[in-house]
Amino acid sequence: MKKESQLTQREMTQKMGVSLGKINYCISELSQKGMIKVERFQKSKNKSAYIYRLTPSGLEEVSTLTVSFLKNKIREYDRIKMEIKSLVGQVREMDSELAAVPDLLEALKDKS
Description:
With 112 residues, this protein is mostly helical. The chain has 2 domains: 54 residues, Arc Repressor Mutant, subunit A (Orthogonal Bundle); 57 residues. 63% of the residues lie in helices and 9% in strands. The protein contains 5 helices and 2 strands, in the order ααββααα. It is elongated.
């Protein structure tokens, strides 16, 4: 996976599919909440060049969001797994001939 730690705001707009104004707004809000620190490159010829650094509280927030995301995905996985199991049961009940097709059931079986 390519590390993209040096994106410009314009590159962010292209990758994220949002406007430059939204990127500026989000950066401003993240800075005000203390999640990122905005610093100007002192040695850059481009006086509008900034670097955005994740603060310890920003890192903590990212960690919290990541854990929350993973918990949601695990719940989603478990729900889908149960739904598939239920559907396999319904297929067996609805049509014993269809249920006898080994490829179908093998593809739908719970492997765990």
